[in-house]
Amino acid sequence: MSKFFVTTPIYYVNDAPHIGHAYTTILADVLSRYHRTAGDEVFFLTGLDEHGQKVKQAAEKRGMTPQAHSDDLAPRFINLWKTLDIQYDDFIRTTQERHKKIVQLVLQQVNERGDIYTDEYEGWYSVAEERFITDAEYGSGQFRDVKKIKEKNYFFKMSKYQQKLIDYIQAHPDFIRPEHRKNEMLGFLRQPLGDLCISRPKARMDWGIEIPFDRDYVTYVWFDALVNYISVPGYGSDEKKFKKWWPADVHLIGKDILTTHCVYWTTMLFSLGLELPNTIFAHGWWLIGETKMSKSLGNVVNPLDLIETYGVDAVRFYLMREMVLGLDANFTPDSFVKCYNSDLANDYGNLLNRVSGLIHKNHDGMVPEPGPLAPVEEIIKTQADELPRRVKDLINGFKVQEAVSLIMVFVQTLNKYMESQAPWKLAKTDMKAANRVLYTAAEGLRIATIMLAPVMPEKTAEVLDILGAKDAPPVWGKLMPGLVLRPHSPLFPRIEVEKT
Ligand code: MSP
Fold first, then answer.
1. CA gap 253, 316 in Å, rounded
2. Ligand 1 in contact with 20 (CB < 6 A)?
3. If you measure from the C-alpha of residue 485 to the centroid of ligand 1, how many angstroms do you get, rounded to a whole number?
4. Hey, CA dihedral for 331, 334, 337, 340, is it positive or negative?
């Protein structure tokens, strides 16, 4: 048995969660469930990033304090995760005391290590954007409310660890995945790495964790947020717990936060003398059609709308089935309906309907005795026997889309087998053969269902209940002849296109 510590980014509470946030969280949940089924001890961490400029601005827009705003938005995330059947082990909010004190501890330790210094920075500051802009940006004339600001700040000596980081990435091929993201980071590190400004003067931005050695400053939001990955599993508070879980097995992130994770976070860990996570996996973006999802374009997909129309499991399935991990994917209502109708209604749902329909018709719902298998069934049995191991290998390699696809190919094979064997005809001439076919299809369906359970926990539980095999392992022959199947309505009724 091994441990599996998986994290999602902690989401800014500047708006309600959208399908992009739901995607990473479902992905972490799916991986966690596969690992739990494999007997691993799992720690799945997610949460909210509640400090910083973005959250402060969002709160101001609503005329609320940042804390009240965060308290108001947090349940939207928590409730969505509940609706989506997300089984996380801990949920961090960065305004919690348990996190704040560890960020301050980290600041102290990095400071004691000699990795923090103060510097006076003078530059163009855009009040509208609330950030320093470069000379070129200033020259573009695209920024409003620009003034020259001279400001003292605290800096983290990120540059000190540049070479160490390059060497580390090169020596650990699985550290940044997929491969093209690793190359992107190595390319980025070919330029001299600057140091990181990790403070904000309270006079300008006060929504953050106070710097323990200078009360006039708060911590830069990224230096605060990244620490959640160690504050929760016990760094500085519970040595035993920390030793058990750290390093994380995988930080799941979107491609836009690659640098903060692969450069800021890793150099922070170097400074603390801690191990780096085993893998940082950056997935692509969900595009709407071909365009970026954005509030101003009005094309943000709210997962709750989809769930209401198609059900939780269909949404989880679609997201896992459609995105090749690492690449962008296009969300369109058409592709959703196509995926639903072809995989869930036609292939999976239909297999159950056919098998259970015939078992009810021919045997009063009783699972028939298979008798000795013929060569064609032996082929199916071998595929079923190999399925769990093959899925496990793909999941360990973060190939979730391929794993789902493999299971669906097996479901298609079972449907083709039913068609070619035609047990409804066989029943008239050779009842033994008809029984063998029905048992084989039902047992294949059961094993495919177990393999799909981490992706569709609700519907698969229903199918296993129908098959009277809730706790049986994915091992051929565990479906009990003589057992009566529970009557049921169609699992995934076809969506008629007009309806959408
Ligand atoms: N708070 C930071 C993360 C701190 S982690 C220590 C943050 N939050 S975020 O809410 O803006 O974004 C969270 C995640 O959502 C990022 O991984 C980002 O890539 C992801 N997504 C935002 N839009 C997305 C899509 N359209 N598609 C897929 N994921 C997207 O960044």
1. 18
2. yes
3. 44
4. negative
Closest by CA position to 280, among listed 247, 304, 302, 258: 258
- Reduced to 3 states, what is the DSSP secondary structure of residue 280? strand
Please give the distance, rounded to the nearest whole angstrom, from the Cα atom of residue 209 to the centre of ligand 1.
Answer: 21
Most ligand 1 atoms within 8 A of CB, residue of 12, 15, 21, 226 to mutate: 21
Q: Could you tell me the two tokens for 249?
A: 């097995």
Q: What structural domains and CATH numbers belong to the chain?
A: 332-500 (1.10.730.10)
Closest residue by Cα to residue 309 from 497, 500, 23: 500
Count helices and strands in the chain by DSSP H and E runs? 21, 16
Name every residue whose Cβ is closer than 8 Å to that of residue 141 and which is 6 or more positions away in sequence.
Answer: none
Sign of CA dihedral 327, 332, 334, 336: positive
The average pLDDT across 336-352 equals 97
Q: Is the CB of 256 under 6 A from ligand 1?
A: yes
Average pLDDT estimate for 14-25: 93
Give the number of the atom of ligand 1 that is nearest the alpha carbon of residue 226.
Answer: 6
Q: Measured from the CB, is residue 10 less than 6 Å from ligand 1?
A: yes
Residue 86's Cβ-side half-sphere holds a number of Cα atoms within 13 Å equal to 30
Give the span between the Cα atoms of 234 and 265, in whole angstroms.
Answer: 17
Q: For the whole model, what pTM was predicted?
A: 0.95
DSSP secondary structure letter of residue 160: G
The answer, yes or no, to whether residue 498 has pLDDT greater than 70, is: no
Question: What mean pLDDT is predicted for residues 341-357?
Answer: 97
Q: Is the CB of 323 under 6 A from ligand 1?
A: no
